[in-house]
Predict the structure.
Amino acid sequence: MQLSTKHLLGIKGLLPSDIQLILDTATQFKEVLQRPIKKVPTLRDVTIVNLFFENSTRTRISFELAEKRLSADTINFTASASSVTKGESLLDTVNNILSMKVDMVVMRHSASGAPHFLSQHIPAAIVNAGDGINEHPTQALLDAFSIREKLGSLEGKKIAIIGDIMHSRVALSNIYLLKKMGAEIMVAGPPTLIPVYIKEALGVQVEYNLKKALEWCDVANVLRIQLERQNQVLFSSLREYSLAYGINKKILDDLNKEIIIMHPGPINRGVELSSDAADSKQSIILQQVENGVAIRMAVLYLLAGGKAEAN
Ligand code: NCD
């Protein structure tokens, strides 16, 4: 089985069968990661560059670990410590790296569409590790994997995505993926943080009342307020946001069923999620991080396989 695509630029361009293949392959890699020897020789002789033009903790470490577990050679690039600060263009930077015989590019960039642009100009396979407010495909894949692991399937499951929908690439990739896999999706948050067209354009339900959203869903995927992407005042204060949309253990206990709490990280504790909710047994936040490595191994393995056959 092979992916229908050479790059992983977003979930939007994937077929449901691609998503299924990635999730199933990740299940096998997760099993490898439970063994005493977690390393497999699969990507020996494949060289991967991790190009991070934006801050990252989890995603970057997760990709790096996935590459190491697959025995790939890796190099890490941090924009702030590079010649980008001397005025070099994105394309020049990447072409210089590729001329040193690099096979794959994992890339995070603050400009939406940056990996799509690169994919039209370079021969290497590209994995989007987050582009601006557009997509974060491996996050959506690991979220789906974690839901499937917990609930058995995605089909018909009710997922509420709560918070700053407007500026979140995690929200958009999750919506595309869950829709393709037959889940029901609701977005919830203050009206100023939810795009007005989202209901018609993406076929999701919209809810402005936190309690109603939580009562409806099986899973709440809670997002951070992306203050770094907001250049106007969209709500009065973080304190007020927290009062209206912050989730704590008391709110969860008052529901008539036990829902699952997810968060892509980084959590702003006390804003969107209190510590007693984030650390409760309903939370699968650390399982999400664990599953991220298996998902990224699956993506890299499948894209490298496609490349080998194409050549
Ligand atoms: C997210 C991101 O960078 O888009 N984090 C992540 O990759 N785990 C979400 C965020 O920054 O809030």
Q: What stands out?
A: DSSP finds twelve helices and nine strands in the chain. Confidence is low (pLDDT under 50) at residues 306-311. The two ends are 17 Å apart (CA to CA). The domain at 137-288 is CATH 3.40.50.1370 (Rossmann fold).
